[in-house]
Amino acid sequence: MYRLSLFLLACLLTACSEHSTLTIKNIEAVKSAPPSHFMASAETVDITPPPGYLPRAGYATWSTIGEGFRTRLYARVYYLRDVEGDSHLIVQTDLATGSRILHTRLGEVLAKQTDISARNLTVTATHSHSAPGQIVGSQFYNKHISHKSGFASGYFDFLVKQISEAAIKAYQQQRPAKIATGKIDIWGQTRNRSIQAHVENKNVENKSIADNRTFHRINPSLYMVRIDGLSESGQYEPMGAFASFSIHGTALPQEETLFNADVWAYIHKDWEQFITQTYRPSEDIHVSAFEGTHGDVAPAQRFGMAGYIEAKRIGQGIGKKVSLLYQQLDNKLTDQVDIATAIRHVNIREANTINGYEICGEAAAGMTLAAAPLEHTSPVIGYLPFFKQGSRRWGDEEDNCQGRKRILGFSMLQPLLEPKDSFPDYVLFQLVKINDLVMVPMPFEITTESGNRMTSSVKHAINSYDASVKHIMVTSLAGGYTGYVTTPEEYGRQYYEGGHTLYGKQTLPYLTAHASKLAKDMFSKTTAVTELPEQWEYHFDIERFIPQDAPAAGQRVITEKPVYHHASVNEEGQWRFSWVDVNASKIELHQPLLSIESRLNNGQWAPLKVDGVAVNDQGYDMAVRLIKKDAGHGMAEYSGYWYNPLFDGEQRQYRFVVQPRDQQATFYSPAFN
């Protein structure tokens, strides 16, 4: 999360918001008899927002409004239930952050129709900085996550509807299944963006900060859970898989104005195509990955070349390794599955001490937060004394829980401009056991070494009770967003990540102690650890963002015929055309809209496929952009794009196809080649 704006400006921006309190109840889920076989199911749902209203998240003041999409945003759900009746739902989202309010609201909705509630639900994120983010559980981040302020209530309601419907469908369509777990290391696609802070760790022997060392000081581990389901033919075939990997979703520049899933879009699509073409399953498959311990890990894009070309290169490089691991799990699938979960809700401001580790009783943002990290350094601010990376206090820090951190706006002024109650102060500590893999979801961005230490501590706690656990998958940005976690040594260096560790220098030891205690409780007790309140209250400034429904009385017309634009420096070649269509409230970008048809020698038009894959806006080579919100009569103007197009001689023609919307029939562009 980069570049939180100066607090005074932020306060002015929120002056016109509607302040509301939202209450969500923790209700008990539906109960049913345990199955005789391990059961599972998976579903995918589109969560792409309408164009032109909702901001992209992650770059604070330097964010932009999402004018459309280049790669769609999705949520995938994975329902698992063992023969003892223990169940769990993993939700992966192409969002900028996890969300405690989304977690708890989904739990409330799902408990009425399924055996899933807040206690056995995990909501993860890819952390794409080109996705929405103003749906988190604190006023602070809903205010500062983009250049607009407020809880995006309209989009939040849309998310709850889309994801809950997919989860209910998965629950209703569960079938006998098998799973396999595994790990593969991926090198060369990521690098440590704050190696100067990383080498401060006492256990790091090689203190070199040479460029090549940045490729070594990362978390290379990708963990995977593969799920195969029983088909109608009586055979087990691929159903889906989820994985965790450590890489920031920042291969695209902050100036980008289209929603997209960044590197993750290419990982997911290539992985999906590999399974489809290799195994030829009879039903759709559902695969996705989400964040690991990525806090100081950036995509290894070529400097100065942030954009889709680099996002694709890196994403496809990771996708090859993901597909390799998936195939390696062919002979490890088993229907002997044990699911176990534990969850504990803690107010970390009130209960700020555990096992002798104490975090600050109040959160504080550091000055290096405004500078932003390497590759996305803030203009001017990022180079000023007191703000630039590594700026820190000097002198005695023993009695100061915030240590070397310089407080943004100063310690006396920050609370006046940013009330302490606006900061995130509740954490959902959670563990999920799936056979020999234990998932540790955390609502923080966790640095590489912080993840190593948390993994070691949790594994040590578990091994006293269950030596069969092989994989510890620490997952960042799950169940909320509470800033960063660095080691105490990294924190003392006060790079961006340390400045964004809100609760001070002892944050990692404190969180690790909580995770380890939860692990001990989970494995030592005969009943599930479920420590949640009866309800949650959230206090927000509300902004709907999503446009209100408006009638569209005009007709679709072409405003610019297809024109080819040559590839140039860091830009892909593309066909582009523009047309008038229904307004943003009715365009429904979460439904298929654009595709390409082709014909040979003036024959019949047919959907275009390249290497067996249809060319449409569910892939990564088409885009839709809102050009003009008001084109008269409730209509708007849009542009459609086809990147990296196919050229197959004069005898082959192409055309854009626009799917029906509202009262508008299927629409075609003029032919081109």
Topology:
Elements: H1 7-13, E1 18-25, E2 39-46, E3 68-69, E4 74-81, E5 87-93, H2 100-110, E6 121-125, H3 139-144, E7 151-152, H4 153-172, E8 175-185, E9 190-192, H5 195-198, E10 221-230, E11 236-245, H6 263-279, E12 286-291, E13 297-299, H7 308-328, E14 339-347, E15 353-354, E16 357-358, H8 414-417, E17 426-434, E18 437-441, E19 445-446, H9 448-463, E20 471-475, E21 484-485, H10 488-493, H11 496-499, H12 507-524, E22 529-531, E23 535-543, E24 557-565, E25 574-582, E26 594-600, E27 606-607, E28 609-610, E29 613-614, E30 622-628, E31 635-643, E32 652-658, E33 667-668
Parallel strand pairs: 5-6, 7-23, 11-12, 14-22, 18-20, 19-21
Antiparallel strand pairs: 1-23, 2-4, 2-8, 3-30, 4-5, 8-10, 9-13, 10-11, 14-17, 15-16, 17-18, 24-25, 25-31, 26-27, 26-32, 28-29, 30-31, 32-33
Helix pairs in contact: 2-4, 6-7, 9-12
Q: Which features would summarize this protein structure in a list?
A:
Immunoglobulin-like, 12 helices, 33 strands, globular, 5-stranded antiparallel β-sheet, single chain, disordered N terminus, alpha+beta, 673 residues
